[in-house]
Structures are given as structure tokens and as C-alpha cells.
Specification:
Elements lengths: L1 H14 L2 H23 L5 H36 L2 H5 L5 H30 L4 H28 L3 H13 L7 H4 L3 H13 L10 H25 L4
Helix pairs in contact: 1-3, 1-5, 2-3, 2-5, 3-5, 3-6, 3-7, 3-9, 5-6, 5-10, 6-7, 6-9, 6-10, 9-10
Length: 237
């Protein structure tokens, strides 16, 4: 446990740089202001307005981008500057290193996504079901994206553009073509949770609640497992 906490603190320091936290914290604050503006506009259907706010700004942009920036840097920054080798050469279980990176990334990503989006949803005037659905959808989305982008940061150099390509091209365009492609997009499951909770139909939001809960958790477990596997066989420069 002592070793894990030491790894966690080291990786948290690498992930949570002041510049990143300030910039992405400002993005979260902007989301709250957008929610307030929506509420002040007195929408005819407040629940639908709240769902559109969470879906359009939160699940499509804020959640994946913030997760990408923090999670890809957990190993990505260390790999790019050549300092990952100092952690990699230590005689410690690889699962601890993978889990510590995942936990460190979650520590900063969760409050910068879940809190502003739930506050913003409430400010739109939406009911409690929308806010609760937003909290669950955002939390599970963060879980899956963080694990996935931690693995990406270890697997490739310059992980940020690769992650943006997945978010913008695959999830934003290709996944819209049909349900088969949509099932390979995390956004389909987060949207489904929000849609079912609020009883508001969304594109790519047709998965059942059990599926929409299980798949993001399974993606997170598989991605952390893959990260552990790669750490055991990775040639660190």
C-alpha cells in the first residue's frame, strides 16, 4: 500500500499541472455559465433543454476532452521526456503502476467534469431525474475514457492528437452512421444512460440501462488490464 501511494502521488503530480487544472477548470466553469444561460432563457421544456446541454456540451466535448488531456499525460509526458524508465525499472508489480496512473487521472478528472455538468444541468431548470442521469452518465464516461486514454498515452507517442481523432472522427462522425459502429463509441452508452433517466430520446442513445452501465465498466477494466500487460512488455527509452 505504501508503494502504491507513493506511485499515486508521483503520477498525480505529473498529471495535475497547474496549467492543465487552470485551463480545464475554466472550461468547467464555462459549462456552468452555459447551463445558467439556458435556464435564464426560460426554455419551454426544461428537461429536454437540460438533456441537450449535458449531451451536447458535456458528453460530447467536456468529458472526453478533459479525460484525454489528463489521462494521456499520466504515462505520455513521462514517456515523451524519457523519465518513465525510472518508474519502469523499479521492482514493483506492474498492476500497481497501471492502477496508480488510472487513480491519479480520475482524481482530477472527476471533479472537473461531474460537478460542473451536474450544477449546469440543475441551473437549466431540469428536474432531479436529469441531474441524476447526468451524474451517472458523466461518472461512467469518465471511468471508461480515463482508462482508455491512460493506455493510449503508454502505447503511442503524442497521444493527444490520436485521442482527439477518436473523439472527433470516430465518436463524432463514424459512430453516427449506424448502431453497429455506435457500439464502439463510449458516447453511445453515456447518452443511453442520460436518455433513459430523463425519458428524452437521443441519437446513439438506444442501449438498455444494464448494457450502458456494464460496458463502460468493462472498458475501464480491460484498458487497465491492457496497460498492465504493456508495462510488463514495454521497452521504455
Amino acid at each position: 500500500m505504501t508503494t502504491f501511494l507513493a506511485l499515486y502521488r508521483t503520477l498525480l503530480g505529473a498529471v495535475a499541472s497547474r496549467g492543465r487544472v487552470a485551463a480545464l477548470g475554466a472550461l468547467g466553469a464555462a459549462a456552468v455559465l452555459v447551463g445558467l444561460a439556458v435556464g435564464l432563457s426560460d426554455p419551454v421544456d426544461a428537461d429536454r433543454a437540460g438533456v441537450q446541454f449535458v449531451n451536447g456540451l458535456g458528453l460530447s466535448v467536456l468529458v472526453p476532452v478533459i479525460a484525454l488531456v489528463f489521462a494521456s499525460s499520466a504515462f505520455g509526458d513521462l514517456n515523451d521526456d524519457g523519465t518513465l524508465v525510472y518508474l519502469w525499472l523499479r521492482p514493483l508489480p506492474r498492476w500497481q503502476l497501471a492502477t496508480a496512473a488510472f487513480a491519479a487521472s480520475l482524481t482530477v478528472t472527476v471533479p472537473l467534469t461531474v460537478l460542473p455538468l451536474c450544477i449546469g444541468a440543475a441551473l437549466t431548470g431540469a428536474g432531479g431525474a436529469v441531474v441524476a442521469g447526468a451524474a451517472l452518465a458523466v461518472a461512467l464516461g469518465v471511468l471508461a475514457y480515463v482508462a482508455l486514454f491512460c493506455a493510449l498515452g503508454l502505447r503511442v507517442q503524442r497521444a493527444l492528437p490520436w485521442g482527439l481523432a477518436y473523439i472527433l472522427i470516430w465518436e463524432g462522425f463514424v459512430a453516427q452512421a449506424g448502431r453497429g459502429a455506435g457500439r464502439l463509441a463510449i458516447r453511445a452508452y453515456t447518452r443511453s444512460l442520460l436518455s433513459q433517466a430523463a425519458d428524452v430520446r437521443l441519437r446513439l442513445g438506444a442501449e438498455s440501462v444494464p448494457t450502458a452501465v456494464i460496458v463502460p465498466i468493462a472498458v475501464a477494466v480491460a484498458a487497465v488490464g491492457y496497460t498492465t500487460f504493456r508495462l510488463g512488455r514495454h521497452d521504455v527509452p
